[in-house]
């Protein structure tokens, strides 16, 4: 594990040179390939050092972090063209990648918390430094305060667990079962619920997405939302008894909230806001499945987290490609694109079909698992799930048909055809999303 961390750390020295952008991107992909083939896949913790180790759950999310960070650089060519603090931008992405690898490979609960919070700093700088509009300051403050205020109780909870069990190791804590400590249950969960985000504490997400540059949106949708789910999967082993008492509250909020957010999606006119709100709806079903504490629910939530990371990131790339040509994110202006950029319509269709869990995408597998687990938990959830599935398809079709069909806007276009770099970017989102389902047995945690 250390060799991969050192490889990324030594990449920082390249940042003293000029014109090094694509070199750094290639190094990230090389590091990912080495990681994929060198690490022996295990269902239990392996590659263990004193604080760092890895099991199957970590492995998939570290790979996703490498993949999305490489694609973020591929999507950000405009930063090179504008010569907009290129090396500082590279530094932020490498630092973020390092923090994500540390987070997902931490075996200590406190180390996990430390790196979980540290990943917020580069994200904040990406939004504030390379965002589009003055409102990015407000978006940054929302992101900072929601995340920090929710995570302070988590720190208190971690100290309490350390005081009572004398260990911070995830493996040792999995044998610990806490009961009659409702306050601790809330402390341990709330930070992760905000990070996912759960409905009612989701307001920071659309703001952050809309104001972030394309790279910021990709990492937010692709990996940072998964930190919350990963944290929940790790701490649930010690909260099972309390979970059986109180999880029904979160399941109810998530399912009803998912339906309401899907309705909000149907009247969005901003491309990025629509995709951001769809993330909240998807994370609602992930959270519900996870809270059932069934084998299918935990597996399904993990599969859908990986699938959503690839699919949502690809949709943000598409929205950015349209924005670069049209100068607007509004659906009123980005309509009739089938006449204007026909080569892009196929990619809109493929990624939109992934977003509404059409076969053969990984989303479908995840949703089948989750629907089974939630319905087996209570048949009453079928009502919410039926609406959620219907509206999920409705807003995705609305996004596709509104942006691709109709009379195109007769304003002045900055016309340029799609470059090979942009096609490659979209292919690299879509291929793993559809190929991973062929080897779906590796997701059985």
UniProtKB/TrEMBL annotation:
**Keywords assigned by UniProt, alphabetized:** Electron transport, Membrane, Mitochondrion, NAD, Respiratory chain, Translocase, Transmembrane, Transmembrane helix, Transport, Ubiquinone
Q: Which GO terms describe its biological process?
A: ATP synthesis coupled electron transport; electron transport coupled proton transport
Which compartment or compartments is the protein found in? Mitochondrion membrane
InterPro entries, per database record: NADH4_N, NADH_UbQ_OxRdtase, ND/Mrp_TM
Entry's family note: Belongs to the complex I subunit 4 family.
Q: What class of enzyme is it?
A: translocase
- Give the EC number: 7.1.1.2
Function statement: Core subunit of the mitochondrial membrane respiratory chain NADH dehydrogenase (Complex I) that is believed to belong to the minimal assembly required for catalysis. Complex I functions in the transfer of electrons from NADH to the respiratory chain. The immediate electron acceptor for the enzyme is believed to be ubiquinone. Core subunit of the mitochondrial membrane respiratory chain NADH dehydrogenase (Complex I) which catalyzes electron transfer from NADH through the respiratory chain, using ubiquinone as an electron acceptor. Essential for the catalytic activity and assembly of complex I.
Q: Classify the protein's membrane topology as the record does.
A: Multi-pass membrane protein
Q: GO molecular-function annotation terms?
A: NADH dehydrogenase (ubiquinone) activity; NADH dehydrogenase activity; ubiquinone binding
Q: Where are the transmembrane segments?
A: 20-39, 51-73, 85-104, 110-131, 143-163, 183-205, 217-236, 248-267, 274-296, 302-323, 344-365, 377-400, 412-431
What this protein is called in its record is NADH-ubiquinone oxidoreductase chain 4
Which organism was this protein described from? Answer: Aedes alternans
Residue span, NADH:ubiquinone oxidoreductase chain 4 N-terminal domain: 1-103
Q: Does the keyword Isomerase apply?
A: no
A single GO CC term, please? mitochondrial membrane
Provide the reaction this enzyme catalyses.
Answer: a ubiquinone + NADH + 5 H(+)(in) = a ubiquinol + NAD(+) + 4 H(+)(out)
NADH:quinone oxidoreductase/Mrp antiporter transmembrane domain boundaries: 106-391
């Amino acid at each position: 594990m250390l060799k991969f961390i050192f490889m990324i750390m030594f990449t920082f020295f390249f940042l003293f040179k000029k014109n090094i952008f694509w070199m750094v991107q290639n190094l990230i992909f090389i590091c990912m390939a080495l990681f994929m083939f060198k690490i022996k896949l295990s269902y239990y913790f392996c590659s263990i050092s004193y604080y760092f180790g890895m099991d199957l759950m970590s492995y998939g999310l570290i790979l996703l972090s490498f993949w999305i960070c490489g694609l973020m650089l591929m999507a950000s060519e405009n930063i090179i063209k504008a010569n907009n603090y290129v090396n500082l931008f590279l530094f932020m992405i490498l630092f973020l990648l390092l923090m994500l690898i540390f987070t997902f490979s931490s075996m200590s609960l406190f180390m996990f918390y430390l790196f979980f919070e540290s990943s917020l700093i580069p994200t904040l700088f990406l939004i504030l430094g390379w965002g589009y509009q003055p409102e990015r300051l407000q978006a940054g403050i929302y992101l900072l305060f929601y995340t920090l205020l929710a995570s302070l109780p988590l720190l208190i909870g971690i100290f309490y667990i350390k005081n009572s069990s004398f260990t911070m190791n995830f493996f040792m804590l999995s044998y610990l079962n806490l009961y009659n400590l409702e306050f601790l249950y809330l402390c341990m969960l709330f930070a992760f619920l905000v990070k996912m985000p759960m409905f009612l504490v989701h307001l920071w997400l659309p703001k952050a997405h809309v104001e972030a540059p394309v790279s910021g949106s990709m990492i937010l949708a692709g990996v940072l939302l998964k930190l919350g789910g990963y944290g929940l999967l790790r701490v649930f082993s010690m909260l099972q008894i309390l979970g059986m008492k109180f999880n029904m509250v979160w399941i109810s909020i998530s399912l009803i909230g998912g339906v309401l957010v899907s309705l909000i999606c149907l009247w969005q006119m901003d491309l990025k806001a629509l995709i951001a709100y769809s993330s909240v709806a998807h994370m609602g079903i992930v959270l519900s499945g996870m809270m059932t504490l069934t084998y299918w629910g935990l597996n399904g939530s993990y599969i859908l987290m990986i699938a959503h990371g690839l699919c949502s990131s690809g949709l943000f790339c598409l929205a950015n490609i349209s924005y670069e040509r049209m100068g607007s994110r509004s659906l009123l202006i980005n309509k009739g694109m089938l006449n204007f950029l026909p080569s892009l319509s196929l990619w809109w269709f493929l990624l939109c079909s992934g977003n509404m869990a059409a076969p053969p995408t990984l989303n479908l597998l995840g949703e089948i698992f989750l629907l089974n687990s939630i319905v087996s938990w209570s048949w009453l959830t079928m009502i919410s799930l039926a609406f959620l599935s219907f509206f999920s398809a409705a807003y995705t079709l609305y996004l596709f048909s509104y942006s691709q069909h109709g009379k195109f806007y007769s304003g002045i276009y900055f016309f340029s055809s799609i470059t090979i770099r942009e096609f490659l970017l979209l292919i690299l989102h879509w291929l793993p999303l559809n190929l991973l389902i062929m080897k779906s047995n590796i997701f059985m945690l």
